[in-house]
Amino acid sequence: MSNNETPQKTTGLHIGKAEPGCKKNDPMLVIDHVKKTFGGLTAVDVEHLEIPKGAITALIGPNGAGKTTLFNLLTGFDSPDTGTWSFLGKSLSGIPSFKVAQMGQVRTFQLTKALSLLTVLDNMKLGAKDQAGESIWKALIPGFWKKQDKDIEVKALELLKRFKLEEKQADFAASLSGGQRKLLEMARALMTDPVLVMLDEPMAGVNPALTQSLLEHVLNLKKDGMTVLFVEHDMHMVRHIADWVVVMAEGKVVAEGPPDVVMKEQAVIDAYLGAHQDTDLGVVTGRIDTINEEKNK
Ligand SMILES: Nc1ncnc2c1ncn2[C@@H]1O[C@H](COP(=O)(O)OP(=O)(O)OP(=O)(O)O)[C@@H](O)[C@H]1O
Ligand SMILES: [Mg+2]
Questions:
Q1: Which of 112, 157, 154, 286 has the alpha carbon at shortest distance from 213?
Q2: Residues 6, 66, 36, 131: what is their CA dihedral angle, to the nearest 10 degrees?
Q3: Are 214 and 179 in contact (CB under 8 A)?
Q4: Which residues of 73-95 are buried (b: 16+ CB within 10 A; e: fewer)?
Q5: Parallel, antiparallel, or unpaired for β 41-52 and 27-38?
Q6: Is the Cα dihedral 240, 245, 249, 255 positive or negative?
Q7: Is 66 in the pocket of ligand 1 (CB under 6 A)?
Q8: Is any ligand 1 atom within 6 A of the Cβ of residue 68?
Q9: Structural domains of the chain, ranges and CATH numbers in brackets
Q10: pLDDT tens digits, residue range 48-94?
């Protein structure tokens, strides 16, 4: 894809009217009556939500809307008070996070979880081990890896190359920039060949030089056949790459639809988007400057 081209959107995802809880033609995740409270606070209260397969869905909403909590519930990092949900038709209620990952559903964290005092390569290897449900300590004992280790390492290096981190493989993760950590986390999530990749604010804290590359990596996940669900506050990124947008507020799904439609809904603009939602993505990410510089060469 050339730098400023709008990626091809996947359409025809839903059945009937685009409204909260609407059915999808080919849902990957189906969520029913999932509720989570913390003390007196209802963090998540989702009646029905379907995430379409093979598409990029953005989950947006103001701070505290319940986006991260919903991610935690869906991936087994936390358990709801009530509710059920299924992934590719299999119920995931009560399934622990490592098993969820083994089944093909992985997530990254809003605050990156790279282990600072391990090398980039070891972080990648643990991505595979971690999600296989083995303890970090066991995995670090010399000799534990044996034959399996070779395959894991080959795969890790392949991914590091794809994410342009291969030169950093022997460096401690602590030495990476915020953006590189985000890349490492995304690369690590791919160690188990997932079918659904859930990214919690992949662009937060990333400087413009890496924004473009992260954005293309997300698009490439879809190109490679994966389904993506991502939380993001950068509306330009959402508009640019999402095929479908789900809006949450106060724990509930309040709107959903294709980005251009949802972002024009007055309630969504009032609640969340504010005044600057029409600025071009290229300006925000610094890409337009780069493109102009290249043209003037
Ligand atoms: N472990 C917890 N204990 C108590 N309250 C919590 C906990 N986790 C989340 N909350 C509360 O639940 C609500 C939803 O939080 P959550 O982190 O899911 O929001 P979010 O949509 O991800 O917000 P942001 O955009 O700021 O990341 C917030 O009011 C938050 O303070
Ligand atoms: Mg969050």
A1: 286
A2: 60
A3: yes
A4: bbbbebebeebebebbeeebeeb
A5: antiparallel
A6: positive
A7: yes
A8: yes
A9: 27-113+194-295 (3.40.50.300), 115-175 (no CATH)
A10: 999 999 999 999 999 999 999 999 999 999 999 999 999 999 999 89
Q: Confidence class of residue 145 from pLDDT cuts 50, 70 and 90?
A: low
| Paired tokens of 62 | 């103001």
Residues in the chain, total: 297
- For tokens 């359409």, the residue is 11
pTM of the predicted model as reported, rounded to 2 decimal places: 0.87
pLDDT tens-digit readout, 198-253: 999 998 878 887 888 889 999 999 999 999 999 998 888 899 999 999 999 999 99
Which ligand is nearest to the Cα of residue 39, counting in written order? 1
Q: What is the pLDDT of residue 166?
A: 94
Which amino acid is present at 84? T
Q: Given the structure tokens 């993001």, which residue do they identify?
A: 232
Take residue 116 and report the two structure tokens written for it.
């600072």
Pocket residue to mutate for ligand 1, from 67, 71, 110, 250, most atoms within 8 A of Cβ? 67
Quick one: tokens of 123? Answer: 């972080």
Amino acid residing at 75:
T
Q: How confident is the model at residue 287 (pLDDT cuts 50, 70, 90)?
A: very low
